Here is the input.
Amino acid sequence: MGYLKNGKGKGVRSIESLKFIVDINVGKLARWLRMMGYDTLRFDGDDDWRMIITALREGRIMITRDTQIMKRSVITSGRLKTILITGDEPELQMQQVLEALNLDCQFKPFSICLECNQPLVERSKKDVEKLVPPHVFQTQNQYMECPACHRIYWKSTHWQAMTRKLQRLKEELTTL
Ligand SMILES: [Zn+2]
Here is the structure.
């Protein structure tokens, strides 16, 4: 995965153009990728072929731990880009993804629902007054809402911790 060119011929990566489908055996990666702003489906079924078809149809990069899938001609031929994950630990798995794709572009955190993969919509502080805990309302000014599940997102400490972790993983990669 290299640089994607924009119309002006400048080397830029377009985050919108990268989409993923994550196998259930590495399902935790889905949240991380959504956290970074990537459209990511989690495939919960056990029919590999359906996962492959979905990936091809929607132009998604497949992520799996299944070494058997890697032997399929659609993958060995390079038609379907697939990342094989070998580690157990979610953080290391994420690092493998970053490494495989060289994802050193700017992430777009806070843009996709971690639960249902929908693009978030901005909400004003007033909109969410009755929807978030008072201490959150007092301290946070930026809110996003998922149009599907109506979860409200704000930059909570948990969210900040995840972003910091991603940042650190990224930095570790660039110093290798
Ligand atoms: Zn949602």
